[in-house]
Write a structure and sequence with these properties.
The complex is a heterodimer of chains A (556) and B (342). Chain A has 556 residues and is an alpha+beta fold. Helix content of chain A is 39%, strand content 15%. Classes of the chains: A alpha+beta (556), B alpha/beta (342).
């Protein structure tokens, strides 16, 4: 038995530590721990609910926008504000743009190096890489000369001995299966994606003023005006620019991301056997004009796709038995976020430390449960719920992916399935963005310039007490914010975020969180180079700054 | 083997001489230097070895790193692979766990006294610093060790400079900025939530060219980026001076780009170059898009400048300045005021 520690887990947002017990070349048990805490909810107390989004957006700069959206929705729910359609459309565009850009960055810059051996690319024959590229896509950068140039650059970089961000990678590890030519293709696209991401995100910069941390959200709508007669508002020129960045997104996802994903996945089909979970939750997203959500929400239990349960936030409870907090009702109690309490109670080892005390409390993350079950959230949950609900676009793309990989639906419950689901969501979202732009343009044409409902802007119009919640199916999964407003101020502010679900520690019954569960059974060729563990951990796209917020502290 | 220079790196990545000189010229302009400095900057890029950079993450949201990822002049690919040698950065480095710790250890020993440290996020000091641990060690410990042999330190973002959002009242973890801990090294502050990557790049280039950090104000911020009030460079300043204010979201004034002061704009209290350089390759910035500035470059702005949507009242103080252009007094008297009605 070996006790393996990965800390820091890199190529994620934030500070994550993973401890695993390995025996006979397999993970027997695993523990995921959040090792950083800021106390954002305590900071929220007593502030103006209308500006909560500005604060909580800083939970995470990678999942920028997502907490802002959940926050304005929570306040709008509490104050019973219906936002104008244009505001929903602008939000949909910002959310969609974030989803497309963020998932591509995840695939190439956070996840790819788990599957792609950068050093092996040096041995590739650029002519063969060119053939491979042409066989899978019509993307324009596909000549021998192009791949030779990329390889030469890489060579010069390696020969200089200054590997920079590629230093000390697990290069040459036996679990890398791609031929050198495919590795070279992926390295070339790693670099192209770096250049692409800063361009495609300009859609958000136009609508949100900047990225990261856009600044045009508003309780009641959006702060960016719409007026075809003004140079200082969304006008015809803006619509043209939005289409340009939407097309840029579609082209890259269609011609680079998806073909690469399929090519890489075809060499790693054994990863449909590892890293799966049984329970999934998606909250649904993208309000349509008819009041419904474009992607449906739902809960899947025990992998049963024949029965999709509706999501009810009242069934969410958080436990702290193995987290660094105490509850007044005892260690085993579960609390709904509206009644949540959090008193920090660090019982872990004093730094510097070698191992966590995994038999006791071991994480700053709480353990959220839905009807006492851990839930995986994120792209896979979203795809499974939509597929099982008969969602047309999701079904089409998922069937295409399964057909090309020669796998069935059951194979999606895995590390590879999770990584593929992210690509599926990205593609359908990239297409859908065009519809939202067209609808906004039509509204403008019809003289609808309304961007905010300001009836409740003045706090004098508010009830003495109100509470609300806001869902947002963020790139990393179902996110929910909860607010209690009293005397025009925040009385209580709470967030249950995707990485709290996925990276959750054990609960009051000792049941593992989704990442912990997914890691059990993972093969480990060399416990000093735990590449295989990183594959599964990264497939969840952990985001720890989000995950280790605190739910509420009673003031002493 | 000799380490390559930045210019060699850029050429290797296919950057033309013309683009290279253009980059030098843009940077000189941004730094407020005359064109006679362009050759000096170019020379430094051509002859000096790429600096080794170690990037530390503490109580952060990675928004500053994301901001740097949006770099366009040069691009992030060029910065990471060519302009600097980035030896440690948890968000993008290939290595993890022990191998990542080794990268950090190797960099600070091999390049002792020469490496540049970038710190993102605040440092918790309460309860022995246990609120942020990496590799089982506290942020406080890691910062002290890495800073010891650093050439200079860049505190990037409002958290690393002043404690930022974790230090907002009641500061549950005792979060502080780098300068509160490191007293014996040159530390430059690049505040902003997040900061604009262009200011980061310009600071780097200044350091490479002149071997020292750019001139700063009394808060340790580079003057080229933080020397002028947002209000004084704001494209909507004329509307302030003539008393044209947006009163409500989506009203006529708001749609026509009138001043956002009465909706809460904090531009008159913020020293930052957003109106001149804008964000994301010059695409936009908050006031341009219709939302008030929250003065994210200022110390303790989360407390000092909130509530963000309240008219700050003190218009007369600014009008004393505005009188210089002769319109302020008239605006105050309502003489030039236009009606904000449909």
């Amino acid at each position: 038995m070996a006790r393996l520690v990965i800390d820091p887990v890199t190529r994620i947002e934030g500070h994550l530590r993973c401890e695993a017990v390995v025996a006979d070349g397999k993970v027997k048990d695993a523990y995921s721990s959040c090792t950083m805490w800021r106390g954002i909810e305590i900071i929220m107390k007593g502030r103006d609910p209308r500006e909560a989004w500005i604060f909580v957006q800083r939970l995470c700069g990678v999942c920028t926008t997502v907490h802002a959206i959940a926050s304005v929705r929570a306040v709008e729910d509490a104050l019973k504000i219906k936002v104008p359609r244009n505001a929903d459309l602008i939000r949909n565009l910002i959310m969609g743009n974030q989803c497309v850009q963020d998932h591509v960055i995840h695939f190439y810059h956070l996840h790819a190096l788990d599957w792609v051996d950068v050093v092996s690319a040096l041995k590739a024959d650029p002519a063969k890489t060119s053939e491979l590229a042409k066989s899978i896509s019509s993307w324009h950068n596909n000549s021998t000369t192009y791949f030779k140039a990329v390889q030469d650059k890489l060579k010069a970089f390696v020969e200089r001995g200054q590997l920079g961000i590629f230093s000390n990678g697990y290069w040459g590890h036996p679990a890398y299966k791609l031929p050198p030519e495919a590795n070279l293709l992926a390295v070339a696209h790693y670099l192209e994606a770096l250049d692409w991401q800063k361009e495609v995100i300009k859609m958000m910069a136009i609508l949100g003023a900047k990225n990261p941390h856009p600044q045009t959200f508003l309780v009641g709508g959006m702060a960016i005006p719409v007026d075809p007669e003004s140079q200082n508002a969304i006008n015809a020129g803006t619509i043209a620019a939005l289409h340009k960045y939407a097309d840029m997104g579609i082209e890259f996802v269609e011609k680079v991301y998806i073909p690469d994903l399929l090519a890489v996945a075809s060499f790693y089909k054994d990863w449909t056997k590892y890293g799966g979970n049984s329970n999934f939750l998606a909250c649904g997203e993208y309000p349509e004009a008819n009041g419904k959500l474009w992607l449906p929400g739902g809960v899947i239990k025990n992998k049963n796709l024949r029965e999709i349960y509706p999501v009810d936030h009242k069934k969410v409870m958080e436990y702290i038995t193995r987290s660094y907090y105490t509850y007044s009702k005892g260690e085993k109690a579960g609390l709904h976020p509206w009644d949540g309490e959090t008193t920090p109670n660090y019982t872990g080892p004093k730094p510097p430390y070698e191992y966590l005390n995994v038999d006791g409390k071991y994480s700053w993350g709480k353990a959220p449960r839905y009807e006492e079950l851990p839930m995986e959230v994120g792209p896979l949950a979203r795809v499974l719920v939509a597929y099982a609900s008969g969602h047309k676009e999701i079904k089409e793309v998922t069937d295409m992916v399964m057909k090309k990989l020669g796998i069935g639906l059951e194979a999606l419950f895995s590390t590879l399935g999770r990584t593929a689901a992210r690509g599926i969501i990205t593609l359908v979202t990239a297409y859908k963005i065009k519809d939202f732009i067209n609808e906004l343009a039509t509204n403008m044409k019809n003289g609808d310039f309304k961007i905010a409902n300001t009836e409740k802007w003045d706090p004098k119009t508010w009830p003495a007490e109100a509470k609300g919640m806001g869902w947002h199916d963020a790139p990393r999964g179902a996110l929910s914010h909860y607010i209690v407003i009293k005397n025009k101020k925040i009385e209580n502010y709470q967030m249950v975020v995707p990485s709290t679900w996925n990276l959750s520690p054990r609960d009051h019954k000792g049941i593992r969180g989704p990442v912990e569960e997914a890691l059990v059974g993972t093969p480990v060729a060399d416990s000093k180079q735990p590449l295989e563990l990183l594959r599964t951990i990264h497939s969840f796209d952990p985001c720890m700054a989000c995950g280790m917020h605190i739910v509420e502290v009673k003031e002493e | 083997m000799e380490r390559e220079t930045i210019y060699e790196g850029l050429v290797r990545r296919g950057v033309s001489r013309r683009d290279f000189l253009k980059f030098c010229a843009t940077t000189a302009a941004m730094l407020g230097l005359s064109s006679s400095y362009v050759p000096k900057i170019a020379e430094a890029m051509e002859k000096k070895e790429k600096p080794v950079v170690v990037w530390l993450h503490f109580q952060d949201c990675t928004g500053c790193s994301e901001s740097v990822l949006r770099a366009t002049k040069p691009t992030i690919g060029q910065i990471v692979l060519d302009v600097v040698s980035l030896e440690y950065h948890e968000t993008i480095m290939a290595a993890a766990g022990h191998q990542a710790e080794k990268s950090l250890h190797d960099a600070i020993h091999k390049y002792k006294g020469k490496y540049l440290v970038v710190v993102e996020g605040s440092i918790p000091t309460k309860d022995g610093g246990l609120y942020c641990c990496i590799g089982g060690r506290s942020a406080l410990d890691i910062l002290k060790e890495v800073a010891k042999d650093a050439a200079v330190i860049i505190a990037i973002g409002s958290c690393a400079t002043y404690g930022g959002i974790p230090a907002a009242k009641p500061n549950p973890t005792g979060a502080v900025g780098v300068r509160d801990i490191i007293k014996d090294k040159p530390v430059i502050n690049l505040p902003g939530c997040p900061p604009n990557v262009e200011n980061f790049t310009a600071t780097l280039v200044y350091f490479l060219t002149f071997g020292k950090l750019p001139k700063t104000d009394n808060l340790g911020r580079p003057l080229f980026a933080h020397g002028i009030l947002i209000h004084d460079n704001c494209e909507r300043r004329g509307h302030f001076d003539t008393g044209e204010f947006a009163k409500s979201w989506g009203d006529k004034g708001h749609r026509l780009g009138w001043c956002l002061y009465e909706l809460g704009c904090k531009g008159p209290f913020a020293y930052q170059n957003c109106p001149t350089i804008r964000w994301n390759d010059g695409t936009s910035w908050p006031v341009m898009a219709g939302h008030p500035c929250v003065a994210c470059s200022e110390p303790k702005f989360w407390d000092a400048n909130a509530p963000f949507y309240a008219d700050s009242g003190k218009k007369e103080e600014f009008l004393a300045k505005a009188t210089k252009i002769g319109l302020g007094a008239m605006a105050l008297a309502g003489l030039t005021k236009k009606e904000n009605k449909e």
